[in-house]
Amino acid sequence: MTYAAEKLINLADYPIHIPGPARDAVLARVRGALAQDGCAVIKKFLTPAGIAALTAEADSVAEQGHRSFNRTNAYFTQDDPSLPQDDPRRQFYDRSNAFIPADNFVADAPLRSVYDFPGFDEFIRECLQEEAFYRYADPLADVIVNMAEEGNGFPWHFDTNNFTVTLAIQNAESGGAFEYAPGIREGDENFAEVARVLAGTSDRVKVLELEPGDLQLFRGRYSLHRVAPLRGARRRYVAIFSYVQEPGMVGAPERTMQLYGRTLPIHHQRAGQRNDAYID
């Protein structure tokens, strides 16, 4: 079955493929939000039919999700006993997650119909005002779904890449709020304020209750953020669209195995060819 992206994307409110005042207004609003605190949300980017189609697709491949469990700090680094016990680099939290790899989402099905819609990539690039902007070439990771179940969440962390582009598909019954401290380490690491966020005493934390169909653009390199733990039997689905600053990039074999439970020949063929810190 082929899906028409025009029925999945709310083009009436967001004519992302048509140059003109309406598109310019959306770009201006998103850029303003990103400049203010590194986070922009395009509410109801999907139509109700789009939400239903993407949810059904995620349900159909949910069992292909690769689950992982570990403990991590906000920086994804190892413990350093030379630091004080209360240093944020020594605060570790349980992390449980599952990713449904990209090769489970086939062409002409709902998720890739959105991703491949003419004008989508360019709209995202213009929102972010990035000059070097390419799709991630990794066949397991160019567009994936993060799947989280009761008790899962994502503890406080900084991203290694400059931005993320996510699309809320289905929420858990409760929990799962997106919490972030915008620009907390602009200019320096600001460990004292990071420690206050981790302790729950900072006044810089904002809370977003994203709804199915919302498109989020977020610059998480300098903003500490987390997804609060989920409650209830319903899974939370969030699509992640991956873009990078160099063409042809794929994940390192070790990181790919950790995230997706398997690798492909391309990961080994291109191992060691990367010179950046994006994605993994």
From TrEMBL:
Question: Gene3D superfamilies under this entry?
Answer: q2cbj1_9rhob like domain
Q: Which UniProt keywords apply?
A: Iron, Metal-binding, Oxidoreductase
Question: Fe2OG dioxygenase domain: from which residue to which, for each copy?
Answer: 123-246
Give the domain of life: Bacteria
User: One Pfam family, short name please?
Assistant: HalD
Q: Which SUPFAM superfamilies match?
A: Clavaminate synthase-like
- What does the similarity note say? Belongs to the iron/ascorbate-dependent oxidoreductase family.
Identification of the protein by name: Fe2OG dioxygenase domain-containing protein
